[in-house]
Amino acid sequence: MNNSKIILVSHGGLAAGMKNSVEMIIGEKDNLYSFGLQPGMVCDDIINELKNLILNTDGQVIIIGDIFGGSVCNGATTLLEYPNVKVIAGMNMLLVINVLMSSGEISTEDTHRMIAEAKEGMKVIEIIKEEDESFF
User: Fold this and answer.
1) Does domain 5-120 sit in CATH 3.90.79.10?
2) For residue range 80-107, what is the model confidence (pLDDT) as tens digits?
3) pTM, whole model, 2 decimals?
Protein backbone atom coordinates (compact mmCIF):
# COMPACT_ATOMS: atom_id res chain seq x y z
CA MET A 1 0.00 0.00 0.00
CA ASN A 2 1.66 3.22 -1.15
CA ASN A 3 1.74 6.18 1.26
CA SER A 4 -0.39 4.24 3.72
CA LYS A 5 0.09 3.44 7.37
CA ILE A 6 -1.03 0.30 9.18
CA ILE A 7 -1.27 0.83 12.92
CA LEU A 8 -1.74 -1.98 15.44
CA VAL A 9 -3.18 -0.98 18.81
CA SER A 10 -3.71 -3.18 21.85
CA HIS A 11 -3.64 -3.58 25.56
CA GLY A 12 -0.12 -4.45 26.74
CA GLY A 13 2.39 -5.93 24.33
CA LEU A 14 0.05 -7.68 21.89
CA ALA A 15 0.45 -5.07 19.13
CA ALA A 16 4.26 -5.06 19.40
CA GLY A 17 4.33 -8.87 19.41
CA MET A 18 2.01 -9.01 16.40
CA LYS A 19 4.21 -6.55 14.50
CA ASN A 20 7.28 -8.63 15.30
CA SER A 21 5.61 -11.91 14.27
CA VAL A 22 4.18 -10.53 11.03
CA GLU A 23 7.54 -9.08 10.05
CA MET A 24 9.16 -12.48 10.64
CA ILE A 25 6.89 -13.83 7.91
CA ILE A 26 6.73 -11.01 5.34
CA GLY A 27 9.75 -8.90 6.23
CA GLU A 28 10.08 -5.50 7.85
CA LYS A 29 7.55 -2.90 6.81
CA ASP A 30 8.26 0.80 7.25
CA ASN A 31 4.54 1.59 7.20
CA LEU A 32 3.65 -0.76 10.10
CA TYR A 33 3.40 0.72 13.58
CA SER A 34 2.40 -0.69 16.97
CA PHE A 35 1.13 0.91 20.14
CA GLY A 36 0.23 -0.81 23.40
CA LEU A 37 -1.63 0.62 26.36
CA GLN A 38 0.61 -0.06 29.35
CA PRO A 39 -0.22 0.10 33.07
CA GLY A 40 -0.34 3.72 34.22
CA MET A 41 -1.14 5.02 30.74
CA VAL A 42 -4.45 6.42 29.56
CA CYS A 43 -5.87 5.74 26.14
CA ASP A 44 -5.49 9.40 25.13
CA ASP A 45 -1.70 8.95 25.30
CA ILE A 46 -1.91 6.55 22.35
CA ILE A 47 -4.64 8.46 20.51
CA ASN A 48 -2.53 11.64 20.50
CA GLU A 49 0.40 9.74 18.97
CA LEU A 50 -1.92 8.25 16.36
CA LYS A 51 -3.22 11.72 15.46
CA ASN A 52 0.34 12.80 14.70
CA LEU A 53 0.82 9.80 12.40
CA ILE A 54 -2.49 10.46 10.65
CA LEU A 55 -1.75 14.14 10.12
CA ASN A 56 1.65 13.27 8.64
CA THR A 57 0.35 10.98 5.91
CA ASP A 58 -1.42 11.67 2.67
CA GLY A 59 -2.50 8.05 2.26
CA GLN A 60 -4.93 5.70 3.92
CA VAL A 61 -4.50 4.80 7.59
CA ILE A 62 -5.76 1.40 8.76
CA ILE A 63 -5.92 0.97 12.52
CA ILE A 64 -6.29 -2.62 13.69
CA GLY A 65 -7.33 -2.96 17.33
CA ASP A 66 -7.15 -5.94 19.61
CA ILE A 67 -10.72 -6.29 20.84
CA PHE A 68 -14.04 -4.75 19.86
CA GLY A 69 -15.41 -2.69 22.74
CA GLY A 70 -12.04 -2.46 24.49
CA SER A 71 -10.73 0.92 25.57
CA VAL A 72 -7.95 1.07 22.98
CA CYS A 73 -10.23 0.19 20.07
CA ASN A 74 -12.92 2.53 21.37
CA GLY A 75 -10.35 5.31 21.54
CA ALA A 76 -9.27 4.59 17.97
CA THR A 77 -12.84 5.06 16.75
CA THR A 78 -12.56 8.75 17.67
CA LEU A 79 -10.07 9.00 14.78
CA LEU A 80 -12.76 8.09 12.24
CA GLU A 81 -13.35 11.84 11.95
CA TYR A 82 -10.39 11.78 9.55
CA PRO A 83 -11.60 10.69 6.09
CA ASN A 84 -8.51 8.56 5.37
CA VAL A 85 -8.90 6.39 8.52
CA LYS A 86 -10.45 2.92 8.83
CA VAL A 87 -10.64 1.03 12.14
CA ILE A 88 -10.86 -2.76 12.32
CA ALA A 89 -11.39 -4.65 15.59
CA GLY A 90 -10.31 -8.22 16.31
CA MET A 91 -6.64 -8.29 15.38
CA ASN A 92 -5.16 -11.55 14.17
CA MET A 93 -2.07 -12.40 12.17
CA LEU A 94 -3.78 -13.37 8.90
CA LEU A 95 -5.79 -10.14 8.91
CA VAL A 96 -2.68 -8.02 9.47
CA ILE A 97 -0.76 -9.85 6.73
CA ASN A 98 -3.64 -9.46 4.26
CA VAL A 99 -3.88 -5.73 4.96
CA LEU A 100 -0.12 -5.29 4.56
CA MET A 101 0.00 -7.28 1.33
CA SER A 102 -2.79 -5.26 -0.29
CA SER A 103 -1.93 -2.87 -3.06
CA GLY A 104 -3.75 0.41 -3.29
CA GLU A 105 -6.48 1.73 -1.08
CA ILE A 106 -8.52 -0.80 0.87
CA SER A 107 -12.26 -0.47 0.32
CA THR A 108 -14.97 -1.41 2.79
CA GLU A 109 -15.67 -4.47 0.63
CA ASP A 110 -11.97 -5.44 0.78
CA THR A 111 -12.05 -5.05 4.54
CA HIS A 112 -15.05 -7.37 4.89
CA ARG A 113 -13.37 -9.97 2.65
CA MET A 114 -10.16 -9.84 4.70
CA ILE A 115 -12.08 -10.25 7.94
CA ALA A 116 -13.95 -13.25 6.49
CA GLU A 117 -10.64 -14.82 5.40
CA ALA A 118 -9.16 -14.25 8.86
CA LYS A 119 -12.20 -15.89 10.48
CA GLU A 120 -11.95 -18.81 8.06
CA GLY A 121 -8.41 -19.41 9.28
CA MET A 122 -9.67 -20.03 12.81
CA LYS A 123 -10.20 -23.75 13.40
CA VAL A 124 -10.50 -26.19 16.26
CA ILE A 125 -7.94 -28.89 15.61
CA GLU A 126 -8.79 -32.29 17.06
CA ILE A 127 -7.55 -35.84 16.76
CA ILE A 128 -10.31 -38.10 15.52
CA LYS A 129 -10.06 -41.62 16.89
CA GLU A 130 -11.50 -44.32 14.73
CA GLU A 131 -13.80 -46.96 16.15
CA ASP A 132 -12.34 -50.38 16.90
CA GLU A 133 -12.44 -52.19 13.58
CA SER A 134 -11.95 -55.74 14.88
CA PHE A 135 -14.47 -58.40 13.86
CA PHE A 136 -14.65 -60.13 17.25
Assistant:
1) no
2) 999 999 999 999 999 999 999 988 888 8
3) 0.88
